[in-house]
Structures are given as structure tokens and as C-alpha cells.
Amino acid sequence: MLKKSGSKGRLLCFMVIAIVSVIMTACSSGESSGTAEEGRANQEVYQFEFNNVSSSLSSTTKDVILPWVEMVEEKTDGRVKINVHHGGALGKIGTVYQDVSNGVYDMATMYSQSVEETENHLITVGDLPFIATNDIEIDSKVMTEFYNRHKDEVLNGVEVMGVTTGGLTNMLSSKPIETIEDFKGLTIRAGADSESAIYFDWGMTPVEVAPEERYDALQRGIITAMGTAKSVAVDSRYYEVVDYYYELPYKTMHVFAIVNENRFQSLPEDLQQLFREELFPAYQELKVRETIIQEDVYLEQLKDEINVSVFPEEELEKLKDITTSSEAAWIDNANKRGLDGEGLLEEYREIQKELAAQ
After folding, report:
1. In this structure, which of 60, 213, 241, 333 has its CB flanked by the most CB atoms within 10 Å?
2. From which residue to which does the signal peptide run (predicted)?
């Protein structure tokens, strides 16, 4: 009887110990889980305001900006959140650099042509007529390398997230253009002196028109032609107010994704490193890929709306021969700013030659 009673006692003791052990483990696990959840809840979230100058329906928005914003939130475990405002809701396309550098908002995409008549003039060298290779990937690499060599001289107050070549600039027109003689007398939108010089060489009359006024200017006949990329022609619906689009790739522009320098440097060092090593290159890759793919997509969309033609090759060669003033105007502008215009142009061409050979 005593032996049997002792066996029951030991069994009861073991059961009590096991139950207590389970309870303690559960409590410990709960405390750990609670601590982890509290840590995530208490971590600082850095919010950035992105002024997207494109519409919410554009391919840049759908295929570049929004996927990248999701990637940022995922890769940073929610520590960085980017709020995107579409259609230039936070500021106009022509003042992006000033706005971002002055902290009006945190992020945006800036078009190089908007800073040609400023202290940032040198980064517009790749916008000169007939200087591009017309290979978007190569031209993006060339401009990126050129910018990296001069980044301490330009775009003060911002961190550059990526540099890409935009879609090739072709020609919208209200009238048929089949020879170089047909350009004469047409009025065309132009901005900087180097761009106006192109059209003076072609016998056209340049007119300065703000980006947000170009549709109306075409519709009212204030301008009868405009150089623009296929994507812009579609997204801005210019095909509604002109009849012709000519594949005449005579220039391009470059797109700089930028973030306010102080805001970026307010991030912890590990996040800055993540952006520079992984997230900025990812943005650039998305943008280059989107631009290449959309060249053909937008062309087909234009063909559904207006008369699309390839400008005759022999006439294009004649245009190249008479397009001489733009380069001189760009060099003169650079020299007036204390830069070596000819040297910068030669440097760009050397980089282009090296990268194209690779």
C-alpha cells in the first residue's frame, strides 16, 4: 500500500511540474511576442511626399513609381512610407528642382530641360540635337556617368535617385511635313536658347509655351508643331488637336529622380545605405525598362488616333546637315557660366564612345 501511494505521489508531482513548465513557456513566449510587436509599433516611420508630375494612369506611374514605392515599404519593413501625389498636385513640372531643393515637397522626377538656363546647365548636354545614340539604355548610362563625374557641381540640395533617358523626341504637326522645306513658317514650342536654335536652323518660329498650356496652344493654333516623346503625346492627348506625328528622332531629354538632401540624410545610416545600394538602382532599372517597352506601345496607340509616318531618311540627313546653331548656343551658354562648354561636350562624347563600344 505504501509503495502504491508513493507511485501516485510521484506521478502527481511530475504532472504539476509539467503544467507549470507549459504555463511559464507560454508566458515567456507571449512576453517575447509582445515585445517584438511593441518594437514594430514603436519604430519611427519616415514619411516622404512624392510629387508625381505624371497622371495616375500613365505608364510611369503604374510601371515605375507605384511598384517602387511598394518595394521601398517592403524592403524597409515599413520604416519608410512614400505618399504619391499625381498630376503635379504639389507643384508644376517646371519648378521641380527648386521645389525639392527648398523642401516644398520631398521627392519628384525632374526633366533636364527645365534647368538648362540655370546653374545646372551642364547636365543638359545630352539633350542636344542628334547627339544621342537613340539606344535608351546606353544613353541612360552615358548621362549617369557624366552626372556622377560632375555631381558635386550641380543640383545642390538634392540627392539624385536615378538618371534615365526619356523617350525620343519626334514631331507633332498640324500640317504635313514631308521635306525639310515643309518646316519653314511653322510655329513650334521651344524653351532654352539651344532648343530655339534648332528650329531657327529649320526655318521655324520658336514660341515659348508653359507645359500646362501646350494642349491649348496647339488647339488654338498658337503653335502648329511641337517636338515631343510618344509617351507625352499620348498621356497629354495631343493627338486630339493635331493631325500628324512624324518619327523623326532628333533629340531627347533626361529624367532625374530626386529627393531633398536634408530629408534623405535625416534617415538612419542603415536606411540611407539601403537606398543607395539597392533602392535607387532599382528605380533606375524600372524606369529604363518602362521607357524602352513603352516606345512601341505608345507608337501603336498613336497610330490608332492620328496619321503616323516615318520622316524620310534622306530628308533627315539634310536636317542633320543644317542643324548647327544649337551646339554653339549650348557652348556659349556654358561659357557664360564659367564652364568649359567645348570641354564638357567633348567629355560627354568620349563617355558615349566608351560605353557604346562596350
Report:
1. 60
2. 1-26
User: 91 lies in which domain range?
Assistant: 45-166+254-295
Side by side, which strands form the sheet with 307-310? Answer: 205-207, 187-189, 225-229, 169-173, 244-251, 307-310
Question: Per-residue pLDDT tens for 71-114?
Answer: 999 999 999 999 999 999 999 999 999 999 999 999 999 999 99
Q: Is there a domain that residue 30 lies in?
A: no
Among all chains, which residue has been given the C-alpha cell 505608345?
Answer: 298
Within 10 A of 175 (CB to CB), how many other CB atoms are there? 13
315 exposure class (CB count in 10 Å sphere: 0-12, 13-18, 19+)? middle
Q: What is the DSSP letter of 135?
A: -
Residues in the chain: 358
Helix (H) or strand (E) holding 144: helix 136-150
Whether residue 124 sits in one domain with residue 242? no
Which residues lie below 8 Å from residue 305, measured CB to CB, with a gap of 6+? 239, 240
Residue 254 CA to residue 147 CA, distance in Å, equals 11
Q: Are residues 201 and 275 in the same domain?
A: no
